[in-house]
């Protein structure tokens, strides 16, 4: 191809195609500067994908389009965060660091006595997620950071981490195009937990309840690497404790680990459990239907756990931890 004959190709960013025409000897850096004008994504955050492979070379100031394999009719996808989104993420991270600094300072102060409704600040600092890291090159990292923060501060999750002394170095996300088919991954027994937060098309985020169930599964891998009976027993226990914690909190019998405020959880689990019970004639004993509050709570809990066990069997196929010791 003559160096004076432009190459025409398309770069799609968040569903919007951008038709471009550049000379073959134009550099990758020049192309990225043009894309920044079109999308407000800085070159350092741009990721150009061709069939899932990033075509941005390290020496982008010298690599030409023709050297990078560009040709007429090529269709690429670009991932990255805009300058505004990056600013939002930095603001969230700054607030997160501020909270962590306050907690560290509080832990170093002499404690007169431990709270009767929770554990010590030192224990709380130890058994938690020590770092939250969204993927900055994916769309809307600020929203991903907010979801990771919600998971890390979920009272039921904090509760089971304290009880079972579970600590996670980094809580981060899985990119759908980089890990197709996986919903979660535990690296080195808690060094990092990676969760699929986004939909496959990057046009939104998965339901919170679904992501949290995957998180419980991956927390179990802190203790057991494969999906054997020991894993299933502990994972079932974690799920049951999460459900029991939220039910107890809903009726005001349990306080948060780090404050005196009563936690008021969402009722998705209980509502779903009730849908399994209503109309179920097999559950009605011959002597009549016991509708006492204690029996009703037991039935709802049993139905919830039965559903969670079924979903857990499906989740094992989407977990990258138990299938590879080198993950």
TrEMBL record:
Write down the Gene3D superfamilies for this protein, in alphabetical order: Phosphatidylinositol 3-kinase Catalytic Subunit, Chain A, domain 1 (3.10.20.90)
- The chain positions of domain WLM read 120-309
InterPro entries referenced in this protein's UniProt entry, alphabetically:
Ubiquitin-like_dom, Ubiquitin-like_domsf, WLM_dom
Molecular function GO terms recorded: proteasome binding
> What SUPFAM superfamilies does the record point to?
Ubiquitin-like (SSF54236)
An example Pfam family from this entry, by short name, is ubiquitin
**Which residues does UniProt call coiled coil?**
none
Q: List the protein's name.
A: WLM domain-containing protein
């Amino acid at each position: 191809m003559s160096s004076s004959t432009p190459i025409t190709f398309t770069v799609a960013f968040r569903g919007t195609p951008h038709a471009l025409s550049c000379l073959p000897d134009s550099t990758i850096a020049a192309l990225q500067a043009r894309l920044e004008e079109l999308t407000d994504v800085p070159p350092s955050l741009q990721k150009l994908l061709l069939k899932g492979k990033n075509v941005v070379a390290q020496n982008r100031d010298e690599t030409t389009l023709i050297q990078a394999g560009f040709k007429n009719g090529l269709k690429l996808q670009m991932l990255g965060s805009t300058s505004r989104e990056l600013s939002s993420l930095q603001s969230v991270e700054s607030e997160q660091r501020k909270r962590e600094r306050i907690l560290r300072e509080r832990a170093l102060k002499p404690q007169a006595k431990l709270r009767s409704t929770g554990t010590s600040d030192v224990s709380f600092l130890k058994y938690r997620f020590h770092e939250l890291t969204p993927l900055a090159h994916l769309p809307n990292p600020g929203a991903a950071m907010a979801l990771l923060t919600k998971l890390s501060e979920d009272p039921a999750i904090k509760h089971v981490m304290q009880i079972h002394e579970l600590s996670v170095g980094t809580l981060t996300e899985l990119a759908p195009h980089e890990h197709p088919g996986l919903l979660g991954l535990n690296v080195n027994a808690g060094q990092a937990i990676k969760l699929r937060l986004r939909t496959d098309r990057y046009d939104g985020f998965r339901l919170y309840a679904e992501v949290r169930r995957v998180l419980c599964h991956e927390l179990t891998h802190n203790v057991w690497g494969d999906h054997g009976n020991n894993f299933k027993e502990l994972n079932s226990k974690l799920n049951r404790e999460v459900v029991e914690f939220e039910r107890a909190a809903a009726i005001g019998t349990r306080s948060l680990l780090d404050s005196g405020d009563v936690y008021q959880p969402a009722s998705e689990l209980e509502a779903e459990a009730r849908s399994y019970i209503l109309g179920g004639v097999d559950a009605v004993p011959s002597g009549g239907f016991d509708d006492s509050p204690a029996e009703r709570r037991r039935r709802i809990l049993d139905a919830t756990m039965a559903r969670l066990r079924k979903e857990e069997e499906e989740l094992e196929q989407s977990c990258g931890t138990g299938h590879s010791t080198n993950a």
